[in-house]
Here is the input.
Amino acid sequence: MRIGFGSDIHRLVPGRPLILGGVQVGSDLGADGHSDADALTHAITDAILGALALGDIGTHFPPSDERWRNAESFVFLRFAVGEMKRLAYEIANVDSTVHLESPKLRPYIDEIRKGLADALEVGTDRVSVKAKTGEGVDAVGERLAVRAEAIVLLEKPAR
Ligand code: MG
Here is the structure.
């Protein structure tokens, strides 16, 4: 088995969409970044790459490369899943937390879990997405940023 951790933060700005786990969330502020700035997908991608000791998103998709401008972050996630499968691992489970002051993510959580589970090629029972506010303090609480953290366990299926 292998364990991996990923963390990401993006600035919140007007005029950008807020995409989390591949789902667009209704918000007056969106996430700034080179790609679609999907902090949750980036954290999960980094957790998988970390579990495999294969660097991070920036290693494989440098922000200096114009190909990845506004890229859909599931491209990065599917790449990491491909590397995982190449090395004969599968997802045992993923746990994650999104730190966002508003809006409340509860109405979106099931759709986010379903999309991530499909990309990870597992059932939704193996994909946990939690949401927390910043309690009005720090960059998240002041609505300056969205942050996500993810931990993933990979296992080799029995033959
Ligand atoms: Mg990122």
